[in-house]
């Protein structure tokens, strides 16, 4: 959403558009903390990738993507949820300002990576949600973690929340296209299309499970030949 639309239609009660713009500029300077938090998480994940490559073992991480929410989207979300528009409110109330998406080859890899994240003793795991074992009603599957990562500044240490989404390649394919469809229809998806999207999610989930089984069989055969 463009910021001008937020100013025109969603200015929090008791504030002028000019005040919100000033807040946005002030908050933007503090958003670098979230960028630093993402770098810390990505570095940890990249180390796990390199370790697998060096050891010549199966790499549970296919790729890593990251993003920090646009400051205007952050303000819109605070306003929509009825929270104060300030950096303090962001740190207190929002969990997904900084996001890292980890794409894994197989379902089992997701749980391997999640466990390795838990073992990082400088991280605080705040939330875990398993949408693989318990998919959302629309068919969405993924494993979500919210962690706090320390960011060391020149004069202090700050903990920053980062949301980590763990998905297979197939799960990411479905979620990306479902998001595009939902966006084009402005979230008002007819029941028939919602049903077909859920059916696609089920088909993809079955394919994911079959590919996992095939990988295990091939690995077992390779070990037997050795």
On the 0 to 100 scale, the average pLDDT is 88
Distance between the termini: 57 Å
Spatial sequence of strands, sheet with the most strands: 1-2-5-4-3
Q: By CATH's scheme, which homologous superfamily applies?
A: Beta Polymerase, domain 2
Which residues sit in consecutive blocks of at least 5 with pLDDT less than 50?
none
Q: State the secondary-structure class.
A: alpha+beta
CATH class, please? Alpha Beta
CATH topology (fold) name: Beta Polymerase, domain 2
Query: If helices are DSSP runs of H or I spanning 4 or more residues, what is the number of helices?
Result: 8
Instruction: Bin the helical content.
Output: 55-70%
Strand content: 15-25%
The shape is: flat
Number of structural units classed as domains: 1
Main beta-sheet annotation:
5 strands, mixed
Computed CA radius of gyration, to the nearest angstrom: 20 Å
Features:
226 residues, alpha+beta, Beta Polymerase, domain 2, five-stranded mixed β-sheet, 8 helices, flat
Task: Give your account of this protein's structure.
With 226 residues, the protein is of the alpha+beta class. It has a single domain (3-170), classed as Beta Polymerase, domain 2 (2-Layer Sandwich). It contains 8 helices and 5 strands; from the N terminus they run αααβααβαβββαα. The chain has helices at residues 3-9, 17-30, 32-55, 71-80, 87-93, 107-118, 169-184, 191-225; strands at 63-68, 98-104, 124-130, 143-152, 157-168. Strands 1-2-5-4-3 form a 5-stranded mixed beta sheet. α7 (169-184) runs antiparallel to α8 (191-225). The radius of gyration is 20 Å and the shape is flat. The chain starts with a helix and ends with a helix. The model has no long low-confidence stretch (mean pLDDT 88).
């Amino acid at each position: 959403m463009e910021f001008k639309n937020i100013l025109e239609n969603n200015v929090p009660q008791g504030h002028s558009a000019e005040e919100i713009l000033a807040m946005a500029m002030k908050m933007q300077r503090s958003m670098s903390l979230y960028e630093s938090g993402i770098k810390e998480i990505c570095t940890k994940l990249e180390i796990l990738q390199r370790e697998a490559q060096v050891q010549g073992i199966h790499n549970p991480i296919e790729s890593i993507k990251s993003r920090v929410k646009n400051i205007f989207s952050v303000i819109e979300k605070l306003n929509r949820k009825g929270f104060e528009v300030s950096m303090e409110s962001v740190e207190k109330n929002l969990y997904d300002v900084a996001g890292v998406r980890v794409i894994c080859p197989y379902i089992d890899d997701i749980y391997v990576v999640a466990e390795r994240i838990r073992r990082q003793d400088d991280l605080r795991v705040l939330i875990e949600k398993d949408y693989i074992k318990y998919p959302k009603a629309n068919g969405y599957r993924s494993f979500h973690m919210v962690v706090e990562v320390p960011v060391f500044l020149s004069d202090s240490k700050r903990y920053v929340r980062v949301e980590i989404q763990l998905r297979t390649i197939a799960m990411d394919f479905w979620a990306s296209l479902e998001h595009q469809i939902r966006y084009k229809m402005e979230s008002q998806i007819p029941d028939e299309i919602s049903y077909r999207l859920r059916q696609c999610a089920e088909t993809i989930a079955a394919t994911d499970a079959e590919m996992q089984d095939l990988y295990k069989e091939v690995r077992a055969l390779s070990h037997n030949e050795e």
